[in-house]
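Final report, Chapter 2: Outcomes

The project's central promise was a pipeline that accepts a single protein chain and returns its three-dimensional structure in a standardized token representation, suitable for archiving and comparison. That pipeline is now operational. To close this chapter, we reproduce one record exactly as it appears in the project archive, with the input sequence first and the structure output second.
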Amino acid sequence: MSEAILNFHDAVILSVTFQSLCFALLILLAKRERHISDWFLCGFFLAQAAIPIHLIVNFSEMVKEPAMTLSPNLFHLFETAYWIEGPLLLLYTRALLYREFHVQKTDAIYFVPVVFFIAYLSATFYSLSNTEKILYIEEFYEPVAPSVRHLLQITRETVFVVFGFACINEISKAQKQAHERYANVKRVDFFWLSILVSGFMVTRTWNLLVTSISFFKPTLGPEIYNALGLLSNYLTFAVINVLMFFSLTRSDKMAGKIVQNFGSSLSNSKVFSREFKETIDRHMRSNRPYKSHFFSIEVMANQLDVDPSNLSEAIKGHFDKNFSEYVNGFRIEEAKQLLSDPENASSPMLDVLSRVGFDSTATFKATFRRNVGMSPQQFRKNCAED
């Protein structure tokens, strides 16, 4: 968008910033207890607030010259938001879907693209003097394609689309498991999550299409390209408004709220009774609900029609373990059976841990070592030698 953006368009773009900031604030104020997913979603909407500012500074003739005078550094200051929105959306999706989600060191790989982009800016832009930066900006935003600017835009939009497909894959797997017998089908509002992911997938896919057209078909003309680019801004504006309307009209589903259904409350005598202990143990051994990645104390409480707090007390009193330790004990025992079976000798470790209910390699390995005293790989090796 090399031409001047009209005041009306500026207002629409800036309204996205205002709405995104309001959305982030609403997410934090709407819930008394904040889940880790709320922080990822806030970060995502703060990125959405920064992107319009980047567009205004770079393409609005009313703002561009004053910004150039104030500081050339402003031209790339907010551009990093494009590169972090994808990772934040994926982390939000995973944190919302998986109750035992924890940030792993391996999650840092999601931010490799933004690290490379910052390194690129540091080497090619921020290391220059102010005079050189001004010349760089004037050359960088010349409407000549193909160019480095177009290639960077294609790369960043592709990165988001890849993360978007990863989010869709996570949602699809969750929905399939939600229909299984022992999955918590009411745990996540999939409709909210689908609107969020699909809405921004549409806008970023459109951006990728527009940028690709300008890169491979530069003869199309800047006027058409500018019009297509403005349509992208209106799509984002529409998505934000749909999300805001949906959240305000269905406040019980605000930001993919996790829903809990509590069963009946038990007296202390029933909680610590032999019958209830046998009910819990029989349920775990016969039905093996722990094999679902979505299995949680709320899920099990729903299955047994008891209050989660009663179930937690019973497990602690009868088995001297917390819920996670109790469930993972069954998972590890089944993993040992799989690893010792010659028919599974060639099965990848990821397949084994998934089949017994783990959704994290690090958690599986740490739990296995804690329970068995050796790594899963060593256990499999020992079984093969015997």
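Archive annotation: The chain has two domains: 7-253, 268-385.
This record, like all others produced under the grant, will remain available to the consortium after the project formally closes.
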